[in-house]
Amino acid sequence: MTLRSKLLASPAPLAVVLVLLGVTSVKTLRSLGQSPELILKDNYRSVLAAERMIDAVSGLQEIALAAAASRERETSADALRRVFEAELSTQEHNITEPGEQEATSRLRELWDQYRSAFDSTRALPPGQRLSGYFDTLQPLAVELRRTIHDILDLNQDAMARKSDQARSAAQRNVDLVVVATLVALFFGLVSTLALTARLLRPLGVLSQTVRRIAQGDLEARARVFGKDEIAALAQEFNAMADRLSEYRRSSLGELLQAQQASQAAIDSLPDPVLVLDAGGAIINLNGAAEEVLRLGSAPQISALEPELREVVDRVRQHVAAGRGPYLPKGFDEAVRVGTPEGYRHLLPRATPLYSEDSGIVGVTIVLQDVTRLMRFDELKNDLVATVAHEFRTPLTSLRMAIHLLAEEVVGPLTDKQADLISAARDECERLQGIVDDLLDLSRIQAGRMELRVERLDAGALLTSAFDALRAQADEAGISLQVEEPAAESAVRADPERVALVLSNLLGNAIRHTPRGGEIVLRAREAGGAERFEVSDTGAGIPPEHQERIFDKFYRVPGERGGGVGLGLYISREIVQAHGGDMGVSSVPGKGSTFWFTLPRTEAARTATATR
Ligand code: ADP
Prior knowledge:
5-stranded antiparallel sheet, alpha+beta, 15 helices, 63% helix, 13% strand, single chain
């Protein structure tokens, strides 16, 4: 059955009930209409006949009395007799009530007697007619009237009774119609509601299934049977749900595969990898992390060694704060961790995990095992230190010998010999500088840089640096200037080390400034510290090299002469050991300004504050 037919059929019970009600009402109304008709038909004619017969008898009596009083009324007597006859005959054919038959038969008898008495009275001689009238005719007329009245009463009673019956029948019918209406309404409504509920049930099942699927239960199906449009819709819907769950199964499979692939990828890394959520809980880790960090089946940050835990936390906070990936600056940041195979040095580096809306949802931390690299580094440092140390004694002898030769202590030199000795002396000095740098480097790397800090005047530091390198500047044709500090300013520093820093910066400036250029040395208070600057009008440094020139052994490519790229590294290490900082600002082709800061003494700070 189609939905359309079902919808059309749903008010059918109500319609059937209405039809039944209509039929009952029509029947009732018709029977009500027929009751007065029956009363008229059955009794009213008898009443009419009786009244007409009474009138006829009265007329006849008048005629008989008139005749008795010698007045003739022949014709009207016949007419009245015919009327009576006709009405009597009507009555005889209209017997409806019990007792009416007997009264009518008696009436016929009395009529026959009256008629013959009427004729015989009229036949009497005029003198006897009056007594005949009163003796015979009058009693018969009385009797006739009484009998007619009996019939009249019988019919009038019947009329009254039937009228009562009709009224009560009408009342009964009204009651019946009301009851029938109520019953019909009840059954009609109940059956219509039941049919509508039956019709809507599949829709309910369908909408419940839709809700379950919307909540993620893709296995839910609509159990709707039949051949109507809703059943067809349910079948289509189930087919769609089948395809959806198949799709989810396949995409879930792909996801699992992708997850296994990425897990296999991080498991293949030899270094421990931890993936943390934004709150710091471990959400994934690789085999190396489980093994090296001895994290069990339910890995937790709290299970890490305290030092490593502190480093992991710091690195995670750096990345989670949105400061970008964390890259270690050197092996100094490596953490020593005890593992089943002995101690290892792990260097942390971290990258953020982004959500779809570019928010940071986690951090990937790689703990690079740098144990072997650090061993190589140590070996290299040892080698550098040993070589530098071993170079020192022969270099000193060499410099002494060259010095004696150059000073002609052992005999005069030809011009040619003097030139060669001068060149050898320069190279020896350069070699001495390299050896000094290498020794400084090994000292720094061994953490053996001891500072002998004392109160130093900033202006005096500049002047002594100026004095030490003035000759070199003059020789190079460069103007060297000192801008004395505006007032006395003192710093706390190791004089030898600071002199080395200034001489490195000044030496570099002289080397990179062409003849006719200018170098200015200055010192001033900046941000609570003393800021020293060495500005030159030299070649300048391309921006991409400006930060790297402070790295160990870094030289701008194409550079000739000078040292081995350690001067700025050592200088910055010295300045940082004092609690200061070092940097450069440079415009290629125009010159460079190298600056460094040193902490001021308490007295210097107070002096500045009151100035
Ligand atoms: P080196 O002792 O070999 O000169 P440094 O560490 O002192 O090494 O300097 C590193 C590099 O920085 C140099 O090779 C040079 O290219 C560049 N540099 C340093 N000072 C200056 C300067 N004043 N002007 C231009 N380049 C400079």
